[in-house]
Amino acid sequence: MSTIAELRVSHPDDHEPPPKARSLFAEHVKVYPRSVQGTFRRLKWALLVLLLGVYYLTPWIRWDRGPEAPDQAVLVDMTGRRLYFFFIELWPQQIYYLTGVLIFCAVGLFLVTTLFGRLWCGYACPQTVWTDLFLWVERQVEGERGPRIRLDKGPWTAAKIARKTLKHAIWLVISVATGGAWIFYFTDAPTLTGQMLALDAPSTTMWFIALFSATTYLLAGWAREQVCIYMCPWPRFQAAMQDEDSMIVTYQAWRGEGRGSVRKGVTWEERLAQGGGDCVDCGVCHHACPTGIDIRDGNQLACIGCGLCIDACNTVMSRLGRPRQLITFDTQNNQFAKAVGKTERFRLIRPRTVIYALILVTLAGAMIAGLVLRPHLDISVLRDRAPLFVALSGGDIRNGYTFKISNMTRYHHDYVLRLAGLPGATMAVAGRDDEGLVEVPLTAKPDSVVSYRILVRAPRTSLTGASTPLDFVLTSLGDRETALYDSVFLGPARPER
């Protein structure tokens, strides 16, 4: 009787190896942007120098705030729990101003994106600025696009090792300077520099400098456009900010198609008559793009709106004697109008831009008013929890409170503390000999938080129950500024009748 194995008919494909599994992820293709010259490139250089100058030099700007106060103009003092920005000094309880600044910047970014596309990404984003700087270093050391490609594909020679070593050494120097400058915003820059030169800087500080240096080196030197394409969330929802009237980098397909190389002996009139366009398919716009896209394929998530493809294309058009701006900043509505010969129009004022502008004006007004009218005196009261109250021999009830005064000025202040809401209540300051005071004098040093222990005594007949509302009112004797804190006075529950 034949077995199943004997009856099985072999097939030629049974002995072929299984097909190789495909990866779900495309391999990274390194982008080699070429250098270009033009209006947008000059604008990017100007902003790069300006922004890097502001970043590196700001910690060294001095600002006189008086004795015993830091003289660094911009400082986030984590130890002293202060944020200094020139004449503005914020305390921890005023951190909502920083929240307001972040909201203002976010709405401003929405407005700019609605009007002009991703200008922030193309010109002011730190990732773009530092990547531009690192690419400039790479070009100076390894050459233009073609030589860089050949260098990477070529064998490892002494010359290649020397160039790569020099490039990465310069990148590391820039990264360390970037990480160090960031730490300067959190500590006095001259002091920390002296400590670093003397090899006496705190280990925690050096660790953070190393962390931010490594981050800069990785993101600006290696990740580059991958941060913009894959890591940054902004491209994912930028489309919600844009509409058909947003100015974005646009390829004028109605003019450029059909694309093709220039043939000798064929005039432009003949080329256009044969269905050709102004685009000669040279690829310089694609090679100039720092994210490696081809703008001729339309508006894309990876486009950062830098306009370098415009400069590259304009150079070619000028060389060929054709009109410039084949790639240009324009709106989709204008492109539709041009394609059919209609008049261009730009609508800067439209519902979403008006809404964003009104939000910005409202935020700016609220923040300015808040800064001008912000209090320079703040109090906090913490009632004792053990014991909740003390019944005195005379029948009165006493509560203890920890009373803190935040003097947010650079001057010594004298204050008077009063009570409200509890008839017959008197006070005493623990450690003093005074008793039964209706008004208690207190003092606070400049720019400091002073703590007192206040003992409040009240007749049992003044209590309205187990918990009676009580207000602490502190008044400055100098500028008459007043701060109020709502608290409670605890006592025994009244027996039910």
The oligomeric state is single chain
Total count of strands:
14
Biggest pleated-sheet summary: 5 strands, antiparallel
- Low-pLDDT segments, ≥5 res: 1-13
Tell the overall outline: elongated
Please count the helical segments.
Answer: 17
> What proportion of the residues is helical, as a percent range?
40-55%
How many separate domains make up the residues? 3
Rg, nearest Å: 35 Å
Content of β-strand: 15-25%
Mean pLDDT: 90
Q: In whole angstroms, how far apart are the ends?
A: 106 Å
Helix/strand/pairing category: alpha+beta
Structural write-up:
The chain has 3 domains: 39-238, no CATH class; 245-339, no CATH class; 377-490, Immunoglobulin-like. It contains 17 helices and 14 strands. It has helices spanning 4-7, 39-57, 96-116, 119-124, 126-142, 145-153, 158-184, 189-197, 203-223, 225-231, 234-237, 253-256, 268-273, 284-288, 308-320, 332-339, 351-373, and strands spanning 74-77, 82-85, 88-90, 248-251, 327-330, 377-383, 390-391, 397-407, 413-420, 426-429, 440-444, 448-458, 467-476, 482-490. The strands form 4 sheets. Strands 6, 7, 8, 10 and 12 form a 5-stranded antiparallel sheet that branches. Helix 5 (126-142) packs antiparallel against helix 7 (158-184). With 497 residues, it is α+β, with helices and mostly antiparallel strands.
